[in-house]
Design a protein that fits this description.
10 helices, alpha+beta, 4 strands, Arc Repressor Mutant, subunit A, four-stranded mixed sheet, 10% strand, 2 domains
């Protein structure tokens, strides 16, 4: 089932309500959460393929459980995110019974890029909800615009949300349009949730906070070498 970014976020929010997870309940641990879901089994496996992040197996019928396997060779924050990615395949998609998802560092040629984006974006929203993240950015915005402030923010709050700094950086990039709206005074409930493709179709080209930081450092480097 293909969802818009708005629909995806709504589905994630509904799933968290089903699990009785409050918006300010973080960090979330996917392994502990799956223990609370009666029809999902999760485990850690030392995959020989280093680029294999995780596997999700959809149950063949109601008498079976869904299965998630996560690469135990990864760090704890990585396993938390990859496990949540697999959980999104199970929770927010209408899948074929018995279907298996093998998820790698990069989308493979035979994989559905949109389905993988959906699981990635869903996992990010599940672990780092935008309604929590945007106010944090606003409160720290002045320091984020100085030096390595944005990357420092990502490193600091990655520990708060139980994800890796790179997930936080990607989150800031993915939410660049939503962040710009919120910093401009739009309330959280009025923010338009729009995918990057939809933004491009509208002619919107938002420079994310990590990109702005990279530009600052590039200019500093240029001046230093003049």
């Amino acid at each position: 089932m293909y969802l818009s970014k708005q629909q995806l976020y709504e589905s994630v929010e509904n799933f968290k309500k089903y699990l009785k997870i409050g918006i300010y309940e973080y960090p979330l641990n996917v392994f502990e959460l799956c223990d609370r879901i009666s029809n999902v089994n999760i485990g850690k496996v030392p995959f020989k393929a280093s680029n294999l992040r995780g596997i999700a197996v959809i149950a063949k019928n109601k008498s079976e459980n869904h299965v998630i396997l996560v690469n135990s060779n990864k760090t704890a924050p990585e396993m938390n995110y990859y496990g949540t990615h697999e959980l999104m395949h199970i929770a927010i998609q209408r899948n074929t019974a018995g279907q298996t998802f093998k998820c790698f560092d990069k989308v493979q040629p035979k994989q559905d890029k949109f389905i993988e984006w959906q699981a990635n974006e869903g996992a990010a929203e599940f672990l780092v909800p935008y309604k929590v993240l945007l106010p944090l950015i606003k409160n720290n915005y002045n320091s984020m615009r100085i030096g390595a402030g944005t990357y420092s923010f990502c490193a600091r709050f990655s520990e708060v949300f139980g994800v890796s700094p790179i997930v936080m950086e990607i989150r800031l990039e993915s939410l660049s349009y939503e962040i710009e709206q919120y910093l401009s005074g739009v309330s959280l409930d009025k923010i338009e949730i729009l995918s990057r493709q939809k933004q491009i179709a509208r002619g919107l080209h938002i420079i994310s906070l990590p990109e702005q930081e990279d530009i600052r450092f590039f200019k500093i480097h240029q001046v230093a070498n003049m």
